[in-house]
Amino acid sequence: MATVGKTAGEKALADLPSSDVRAFEADVSGDVVRPSDPEYDRVRQVWNGMIDRYPAVVVRCAGVADVVASVAFAREHDLPLAVRSGGHNVAGTAVCDGGLVVDLSAMRSARVDPDRRTVRVEGGATLGDVDRETQLFGLATALGAVSETGVAGLTLNGGYGHLSRQYGLALDNLRSVDVVTADGKVHTASADRNADLFWGLRGGGGSLGIVTSFEFDLHEVGPEVYAFFVWFHADDAAAVMKRTLEWTADAPREAGVLAFTGYIPDLEEFPEDSWGDPALAMLGTYRGDPPDGDEVFRPLRESATPLADFSGPMDYVDVQSMLDEDYPDGLRYYWKSVYLTEVTDEVVDIMVRYTESAPSKLSTIDLWCLGGAVEDVPADATAFRHREKPYMLNFEANWGNPADDDANVAWGRAGIAETSELAVASGSYGNFPGLNEDPAKSRFGDNYERMVDRKTEFDPENLFGGSVAPRTGSD
After folding, report:
1. Which pLDDT score, from 0 to 100, does residue 475 have?
2. pLDDT digit string (tens) for 350-379?
3. Phi, then psi, of 294 in degrees rounded to 5
4. 94-105: per-residue pLDDT in tens?
């Protein structure tokens, strides 16, 4: 069969025995989407519009049996394999060229046990799916800050969010998982069962298997919390950051804040003469009594004269979704991070200077204030390593025009490279990985060799890919 002009997906599918493909389709309860199917272009798309890949087949799984069948088919036919839950990994790992995509997006139930204070979440669920169910009982687990994000990718790489300082990472709240490994077997992994697998899944980024369900611990949160959202002019960045760092040193764990530099949008909620100016904004929450929130965040609010203040009591589900419209499907994204032991004047200067030079006014530079419950967990207790770092700097390049790809990626890489040269900087975060161009050791640190051991044990042929490769006979 001629392959000239065909996509990678069409070529790979043409190389597969048609009888095997038909047998596979008959074995799967969900839909098997081929390149010739009308919905193919839709189902191969992911959140990051910069990612344009052509799989041979997309399997829209209806249940765990479909996942097992997909793993077996990919293994037997030596196909690259990608797993899609929310599809929000910025590097586009949810889709692959010429391979098989295990699409879990139809498996998104969340079942709450209010007596045990747990929630069982399927692998395709989003943060919004979970929050909607858990808030019926005034409960929540520690997840991220954009409701359309997939629970699976967020959790398996770490999972920072509004509750991190109080309840830790998303992966710290895992009680157990169900996972399909490369041999097609289904395991339950927890602290007591398959403990080595459980260790590697918590921070390994999905490189050891496909997690089909997660069991999380729940905590009393909401339904109303205090949201702190204040914008300052960038001229006041030094003063605001100085006060912020003083505040984070002894802030209650029930409170957390994210600082970011960016541009003031052309919206009537902001003074018109400030539209398009560089700014520093603060976004945080307080989960104590909402009326006390004003006092908790008063030092930050008074650090300079705000341009706009949107703070006040808010439903927790609304806090979790308030950033959704800033990150629409199809926009182009390049996000890259580095951890910091200290926020120096040089770091603040980089934030302001690179904001002013950003090719896109949609881009931001985010300073995550961490610590608290995240660092309570020993650094070797899970594959996720960088717990002792109290801050993380993330360059978010966000833009719309494909012609601007090179300029925006170069901006993000240059900013992280300059920050990484500082003595206070080291290590990277798996959910903000650029395009996965950096070595795995920057993500796993001293946990790297143990992670390689787990990869070699559970995925010796590297079916699931990832940043860590298994050992070979020559290693």
Report:
1. 62
2. 999 999 999 999 999 999 999 999 999 999
3. -55, -45
4. 999 999 999 999
Distances (CA, A) of 391 to 101, 340, 429, 457: 35, 5, 12, 33
Among candidate residues 157, 40, 68, the one with its CA nearest the CA of residue 444: 157
CA 124 to chain centre: 14
Residue type (1 letter), 423: A
The 10s digit of each residue's pLDDT in 412-431 is 999 999 999 999 999 999 99
HSE-CB at 25 with a 13 A cutoff on CA atoms is 12
Give 274-339 as a 3 state SS string: HCCCEEEEEEEEECCCHHHHHHHCHHHHCCCCCCEECCEEEEHHHHHHCCHHHCCCCCEEEEEEEE
**Helix intervals (H) in 385-465:** 405-420, 441-444, 448-458
Here the tokens at position 452 are: 């390689």
- Whole-prediction pTM: 0.95
Q: Please give the Cα distance from 376 to 383 (Å, whole number).
A: 15
Q: How far is CA 403 from CA 127, 323, 396, 407, in A?
A: 32, 26, 18, 9
pLDDT at 474: 62
What pLDDT sits at residue 472?
87
Other residues' Cβ atoms within 10 Å of the Cβ of residue 363:
24
